[in-house]
Amino acid sequence: MSDTHLPAKSTQQVDNERVRVTEWRIPPGGATGWHTHEFDYVIVPTVGGNLRIETPDGEAVARMVTGESYFRAAGVEHDVINNDDHEIVFIETEIK
Question: What is the pTM of this model?
């Protein structure tokens, strides 16, 4: 699947009994690394761009639009790679 990429930087902002909020910064060519989401989550892009999403079933390109939130259910397994020429930043809120 993916080659070696620069690591994304995550900064946890809130972690309590109800939610976990993390800021993600993915440099150009960077990636989150393969992971599986254990909770439902909402993403809010603060700096948009194009991401390549790798899943066990293949790849897709996702356009992150600044300020346009989206929801995903728990169980998503993927690697998220920045396909753009600038840093992409988003806030991930996991619902426990």
Answer: 0.92
